[in-house]
Every structure is written in C-alpha cells, then in structure tokens.
Design a protein that fits this description.
Oligomer: single chain
Strand order of the largest sheet: 1-2-23-22-21-20-19
Distance between the termini: 17 Å
Shape: globular
Number of strands: 30
Radius of gyration: 21 Å
Length: 410
C-alpha cells in the first residue's frame, strides 16, 4: 500500500502536470496534498471534495479485517436446465434472495433458478409479441427484483420477480440512429425502471492510448431526448469479465462499467478511481483506493503467452508487447445488495490467488476478497456467493455457484 506521505510527495509533481490533457486526477492530488498533514497516516478512509464539489472517498485498508474467500466446506452448485441445455449464456444475475436469472441468447430464453440451482421456470418465450424476444443479450435486476431484458431487435422487456410480464418498450430512437456500430445493442445497457445507458456519439480524437472518445447518456426507452449526458469516455464501455492476459499484454486501458439497482459505476482501468452515478446519470462521488501499481512478472507473461497461443489473430500471433504493469482493476460488478466489487491487480507475486475489493454505496472499502488465480470468470455475485462461468469439452457453458466464507489471512 502507498503511504499518505508518499502521495504527498507525488502531489507536487502532479501539480506541474496538471495542465496536461492526460492529467486525470490533478484536483484530487492537490486536495490530498493540502489536507494530508491534518490526517493521521494510519487512517483507512478519507473524505474530500473535488473542485466541482463532488465527494471523493479515499480508501487505504478495508473497514473489516476478515477476508472473504471460497467456502471449502460448502457444496458447489452447478446450474443445469432440465428442459434444454444453456448453449450461449449472454448474461446472468442474482435476485436479492439469491435466485438466479440466466439469459441464453442462442435459445432465446431466460431461465429462473432457485438458490439451490434448481430451474423454476422460463421467463418469456421466443417470438415478436408482448413478453417475447428473438434473442436475449443483457439483463438487469432493478428495485423490487424486477427484471429488465434487452432484446437485440431493439426492445426492452420488463418482468416481475416471479417472471410475469410487466410490459415492453422500444429502445431510444437516437441510440438506433447513432452510426457507431452495425450492432448498436452492444453499446446499450438496460438500467431498469424504463431507463437505458447508451452510446450517443464517437469522437475520433486520439487519446494517450490511441482510443477514441465516446459520449454516453441515460435515456428513456422510446424517447429522443437524453435525460442526462454522463460525459465522454476513452473507448467504448466494457461490461462483464475482461480477459486479464489481453488487458496487460495489449498495454491499453479499458473503460469499465457496472450497474446495480440504485447506482451505476464507470471507471478507467489505468487509475484507481471509479465514478458512482445515480440512475439519471448524475455523478454522486468518486471512489479511490491507495495502492501501488503491480508490475507484470514472468508468471504473468507465461500465462499471457498460453492465453494468446490458444487464440487466432488479432488476439493471437507471435508479436507480443507486454505492458510494464497490470491495470489497476479489470472488472466491475455490483452484487445483490448493491455493493460494488472491483477485480484488482493481483498482489500475490506467485499469482496463487486473485484479488477483489468490496465497497458500500458510500464508497467505503468494506472487505478484501481472495479467489484462486485460475478461478473461472466471475459473472454475478449474490449476498454471500459468487457465480462463475466456464465451458465443458463441448464448449457448452457451465455455471457454478460458490459460497463465500470469512477468513483471516496471516
């Protein structure tokens, strides 16, 4: 962990850099420099405001000493659909009681499972009518466990917690008219309660890492006016698990996104700062953790080369340029209790486990979480469990639910 005194020294250098277009946090660093003397170096949480008055929550150590990890004594629940296999899982989410919603776009179905992994019912069905969809790409759980489904034929469908249809609306016309991609749904994220987060424009301005700027806003389905323009971000928003090998091999950061039932989060993976927004797109606070950058070591390079060898170009190939360090984080998720989970750079030099951090809605770091380094992709998080995704020998998705347990690391 980086000390406050060291950050104070770095703040002077940041002040000289503040005029640069790539200076991401000059206001924060200057504020920290002016306030650090009044704060004890052992304090784990600091609260400040940036020059616009937006609160900044700065975390050092977790509020709770216990570390969550996999519960080795609990059975692993494997989700299996008794009526039809889950061929192409596009999204998954927990309800507040740990029931699980799975979107299978190949079979044009949404399946509801109970907390033990037993299938309860199918939500909606294939078709073009009310409560029907041709495919399913994204799902979002909103207040009251309402379920919002994004259909790539440009509709948003809503269902009650038990699976009953609650209506549907077309996607915002402006999102469909924006000539960003031949697949505009890739840049549309349902937020629940009739809102969607969508890309509105792209500015081909070369940033520090050669990424264009994308404009995002929150819109009402069927409406042409933006409720609130969130802002310009480098590159398109990435939602879901990122390939860690690709993240540091390409030496290019990602702009990551996650949403729960009450807040959405957007952050650049190169800096440990994450913006928390309300469902209308208003910035509520900035969340930071004081942490050292983690260098890419020999084990990382070996893992990355194995990852690339199994993939064709452009991801595969012989020409490999490694970044000097890991991104600050590679994935954002929001659990069933609206806590933010951040997949951080691995701190174990032997790469035996991966690191996650859990924050409450006030931006306070609650706990650290450790999972095995080779653990499957984490796709959703419940109240006390995580859901991972892998594939069997036939490349059919396998979803597993793992219970978490409290453990004190020594």
């Amino acid at each position: 962990m980086e000390s406050l005194a060291r950050l104070q020294d770095r703040a002077a250098a940041a002040q000289a850099h503040a005029q640069s277009p790539h200076a991401l946090l000059p206001a924060f660093l200057l504020c920290l420099a002016s306030c650090a003397e009044a704060e004890p170096a052992t304090q784990s949480i600091l609260w400040h405001r940036d020059i616009t008055g937006v609160p900044i929550t700065i975390n050092n150590e977790p509020l709770h000493a216990g570390t969550w990890t996999l519960d080795s004594a609990a059975d692993v629940i494997v989700l299996a659909d008794a009526g039809a296999e889950l061929h192409a899982v596009s999204d998954v989410a927990f309800l507040s009681d740990n029931r699980i919603v799975v979107a299978d776009h190949a079979n044009a179905q949404v399946v509801l499972f109970d907390s033990t992994g037993r299938p309860l019912r199918r939500i909606g069905r294939a078709g073009n009518g009310p409560g029907e969809f041709r495919s399913v790409r994204r799902i979002r759980v909103g207040p009251g466990d309402t379920i919002t489904v994004l259909d790539p034929i440009h509709r948003v469908l809503r269902f009650e917690a038990g699976g009953e249809s609650a209506g549907q609306q077309p996607l915002p016309q402006r999102a469909l008219e924006t000539p960003i991609s031949s697949y505009p749904w890739r840049h549309v994220f349902p937020l629940g309660e009739g809102r969607v987060l969508t890309a509105l424009d792209e500015r081909p301005v070369e940033t520090e890492h050669g990424r264009p700027l994308w404009l995002y806003g929150v819109m009402q389905p069927g409406g042409k006016s933006v409720i609130d323009t969130i802002g310009w971000f480098p590159g398109p928003l990435q939602s879901g698990p990122a390939a860690e090998a690709k993240a540091f091999v390409q030496a290019s950061p990602n702009t990551l996104f996650a949403a729960g039932s009450t807040h959405l989060y957007i952050g650049d993976s190169q800096t440990y700062e994450i913006g928390q927004y309300d469902m209308r797109g208003e910035l509520l606070r900035r969340i930071r953790r004081i942490a050292e950058r983690v260098p890419v070591n020999a084990l990382d390079r070996e893992f990355a080369l194995d990852w690339l060898e199994a993939r064709p170009p452009p991801n595969g190939g012989a020409d490999v340029v490694f970044a000097p360090s890991h991104p600050a984080y590679s994935q954002l998720l929001v659990d069933a209790q609206d806590r933010l989970w951040v997949h951080e750079a691995p701190r174990d030099p032997k790469r035996q486990y991966q690191n996650w951090a859990v924050y409450d809605t006030a931006g306070t770091l609650l706990r650290d979480v450790v999972l095995p380094f080779g653990f499957d992709q984490v796709r959703a998080i419940g109240t006390d469990r995580v859901l991972s995704r892998s594939a069997n020998d036939l490349l059919i998705p396998v979803l597993r639910v793992h219970r978490l347990a409290d453990q004190h690391m020594h």
